[in-house]
Design a protein that fits this description.
With 147 residues, chain A is of the alpha+beta class. Chain A has 2 domains: 84 residues, Orthogonal Bundle (Arc Repressor Mutant, subunit A); 51 residues, Dna Ligase, domain 1 (2-Layer Sandwich), CATH 3.30.1490. Helix content of chain A is 45%, strand content 18%. The first copy, chain A, is built from 6 helices and 5 strands; from the N terminus they run ααααββββαβα. A 3-stranded mixed sheet of chain A has the order 4-3-5. A two-stranded antiparallel ribbon of chain A has the order 1-2. In chain A, a hairpin with a 5-residue loop joins β1 and β2. In chain A, α3 packs across α4. The longest helix of chain A is centred in the N-terminal third of the chain and has 14 residues. The two termini of chain A are 33 Å apart. At the A-B interface, α5 and β5 of A face α5 and β5 of B. β5 of chain A pairs antiparallel with β5 of chain B, so a sheet runs across the interface. Bound molecules: manganese (II) ion (2 copies) and zinc ion (ZN) (2 copies). One zinc ion (ZN) binds next to α6 of chain B. One manganese (II) ion binds next to loops of chain A. Chain A binds a DNA duplex (30 and 30 nucleotides) through α4.
DNA sequence: TGTTAATTGAAAAGCATTATTATTTGATTG
DNA sequence: CAATCAAATAATAATGCTTTTCAATTAACA
């Protein structure tokens, strides 16, 4: 895991470099994304910030995520059911392990993926630019909690 | 690739066994899914069948896909942008290679995934039940077509 | 401090999918 | 080979998440 403070600074600097204003709402969103503990959703970001800024609009969270995404500083994990989770701590594509019970999302250590990518490129004659790998299952906590 | 005729029969039999009627609309949908050439979308299935049944409703395509999915006879590839593609020829989870230019979807041969799944299970203490692996890139045809 | 373009909040619009409902129809039975 | 009836269909309305709109606000810069 990258240092959240360094990630925060890096994202802020990127915003500055591209001529974007640093509003309190924006800073609050970046702060949460820099850590991305548990891979937050738009909704959970909104709820957390509302405690401090009661007028914070959901549209503002969406808008800022679109902006930060366009700068390549947050990884969006969009799911077919329409839900989205974010990782601003590590914005590069990487595998995820998702608990279908408690919705926890974890970053596993896996290095065999690069080799796999090369295999696929050779076999299919594609130029591979990106990838997405999700494992779905039940986490240890939820297994233990089962009756 | 499985034999489309055998897949067609298998899906039809599954429908019969579960007490579902075999309507002409349903048979037309199953026929396309059994082959799943190019991993069709709801829209492309609808367009193809409309040529024969001009009154075919889009809702009917959706309904039947939900049904066939519930019987485990089609794999749904849902994308974050809301689009969906289907594979009724091989309904088990498997990797896909997707061309971002022409939207072609290909099934690569990859066997190292099972091992990876075991690694992840051990490392994260999850019980892995399912997975999704997509590679995004540009296919040979689109590379060649580039000016 | 004043100027200005970016950003915001609130509400409306957009859009793929799902639900509703009246009508039609496949399958079963005798 | 009809009659029956639950299942399926077509058409349309509703849903729910995300984006857009627009007037008001504000960060940045001189
Ligand atoms: Mn992650
Ligand atoms: Mn496939
Ligand atoms: Zn869990
Ligand atoms: Zn292509």
């Amino acid at each position: 895991m990258a240092d959240p403070k360094k990630r925060f600074e890096a994202i802020i600097q990127k915003l500055r470099d591209n001529g974007h204003k640093l509003t309190p709402q924006r800073l609050a969103i970046v702060k949460i994304l820099a850590k991305s503990e548990g891979h937050p959703s738009v909704e959970s970001i909104h709820v957390r910030i509302k405690k401090e800024f009661s007028t914070m609009s959901l549209a503002t969270v969406y808008r800022n995520i679109v902006l930060i995404k366009s700068l390549g500083e947050v990884l969006e994990l969009g799911f077919p059911d329409g839900s989205n989770r974010y990782d601003g701590n590590n914005p590069e594509p990487h595998p995820h392990v998702i608990c279908i019970k408690c919705k926890k999302i974890v970053d596993p250590d896996l290095d065999s993926l690069d080799e796999m990518k090369k295999e696929v490129a050779v076999e299919t004659n594609f130029k591979i630019l990106n990838h997405r790998l999700d494992f779905f299952g039940i986490c240890g906590d939820c297994m233990a909690a089962k009756v």
